[in-house]
Amino acid sequence: MDIQEQNRRLLKTIYTCFPEGKHKVLTMSYDDGRTYDRQLVEIFNKYGIKGTFHLNSGIGSEYGRRIPMSEVKELYKGHEVSCHTYTHPTIARCPMDQVIQQIILDRRILEEACGYPVRGMSYPNGSYTKEIVDILPACGIEYCRVVGSTDDFAMPENFLVWKSTCHHNHNLMQNAERFANLHKKQYLYMMYVWGHSYEFAPENGNNWDLIEGFCKYIGGRDDIWYATNIEIVDYMNAAKNLKFGAAGNIVYNPSSTPVWISVNERTVKIDGGATVEI
């Protein structure tokens, strides 16, 4: 056995992978629950794109401008329903007890509508403070999206101040092309797009061809995992919780979520509850 092989056995190179051993993930994030979500969801479903939809349950569907709660479960099936506060106030200006009630009440009503725990959020009007960030876990919120763009594909350091790659009106196709061409598997890459579906409406430019062209271009690729916001959070938490043996030759997955890793460039799946030799 040569020295290089001895070293590889002594200290393996182990990387976290996305499902099926992929190293790229795409996620979409859309706010306010306007009726244009119906057309946006249709486009996402057509091309296999996953979206997270942040809704204000306290703003009614009067004048037909917002999705009624009775439609939420069926419309967003296969995607994620997420919190956006009850009435969309600029929460950095609100008393903290009111902020908490805005979040909790929104969650309660949305959960009744969609049938599962709502654990994510986006800040209404992009408004937040450190104190608000700190109370989110106590409100049952595990991630929260801020406004702004990074034009980058790095994973966030803190999911409670999660900034997107870009708004769909900001370098969308340029970022998509860069993302599609990423190939270095020693990194995890994420493209995160946000916006509002009403921004595609006739009164705002009628540019549905932009989002459909993007989805057609980026959808259906073998090296991309298409996920909602909470699916990414849950998966990364499960990956972080893997238990490795001191010699790096065994790994135990205490969660119920299958996790994939790369061991010396070999993809290994660790099922929930399983201990696997690597």
From TrEMBL:
Entry annotated with the keyword Signal: yes
Entry's Gene Ontology molecular function annotations: hydrolase activity, acting on carbon-nitrogen (but not peptide) bonds
GO process annotations (BP): carbohydrate metabolic process
One Pfam family recorded for the sequence: Polysacc_deac_1
Domain NodB homology stretches: 24-278
Keyword flag RNA-binding: no
Main localisation: secreted
Superkingdom classification of source: Bacteria
Record-level GO cellular component terms: extracellular region
Keywords associated with the record: Signal
InterPro entries (UniProt xref): Glyco_hydro/deAcase_b/a-brl, NODB_dom, Polysacch_Deacetylase
Subcellular location: Secreted
Protein name: Polysaccharide deacetylase family protein
